[in-house]
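STRUCTURE REQUEST FORM
Protein name: Glycosyltransferase
Source organism: Klenkia terrae
Requested output: structure tokens
Priority: standard
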Amino acid sequence: MRVVVCQNKNSGLNHHRVEEPARAVNEAGVGVGVTVVQGLATTMSSGADPVVLDVDDQGADVVVLQLPKTVELLQCMRMLQARGVAVVVEIDELLSGIPFGHPGFGVAGNGMARRAADCAREADLVTVSTPALLQEYARHGRGAVVPNAVPRRLAELPPAYERSGGLAEVVWTGNVLGQADDLQVMGSGLEQALVATAGRSRFSVLGNKLDLQQALGLSADPREVAWLTDVDSYVQALGELFDIGIAPMRDDRFTSAKSWLKVLEYSARGVYAVRSATAEYERLGLGWRAKAPRDWAKAITKAVQDPEWRREQAAAAHRTVLDQHLTEHTVPLWLGAWQRAAENRATALRRGAVAVG
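Status: completed
Returned output:
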């Protein structure tokens, strides 16, 4: 079977949902070849409202479209399917649930969320990272959950818990712009912990801190570490620079559908995680669950004041990642999804032939 995966421009999504799965499948030697492309070559009509006249399927049995959000891609899907090429739609975000203030909020306003749903509705199969996304985009029953995972080469780097001594480095990763509401769920918990462990801990933002000090009422301005756009470099830095990672997440439709990626990456690098009790973090089962501000304060304080306990917990989470959550573990899930898509396409063509006859 030949699979062509058409990726979008989001480097983070590409890494976890396209590039690494493709690498893992190709390296597994299971007789399936996966090619990743930036876009599909098409021939368009001229005029004010051009339409797709032809699309290059590159000899694929299955074409995977990552987060398709245009009418033109829907036209490509229909053309490919008419030729007998199965089309899989890969979605890793609840586009219809993006909250106001989030950098991606405009996606829903300009109709992209609706067009993505249209593409998912006509796909031979939809692959998603969480059960909530499956419920949203695969109500027709043609869907599969393939959870996010990390490659072995990153999970086997020297873990954070092997270091000893010095300040306990606490980190939140991200951009405060658009994620301030997530941070607010900690209330005063982070400040309580930093005050209780003054001189023994330091809080940093890997990304963009903006006005985080004022937003959370912190007595000290957090250190800012420049964001790393290369995912390998980012994950590597987690274990080299930090000991405790926090993953607060507000409870709404958008975040409840998000995957467990942040805590998974912390755990893969031996960084002890304190996280919200969202459905996906609960399903992953790693890290210290925190709901109220006092939970955040207690969890962070304990992790700083009892480094041996913190290292034991981080090591256990790290072992779980190595045993269950590597990209190689998801190879059968990707293969099964693509095979189902091909079978669904064949069935649809047979039914169409019978109907015409």
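Reviewer notes: The chain has two domains: 2-149+328-356, 152-324. The chain has a mean pLDDT of 94.
Form closed.
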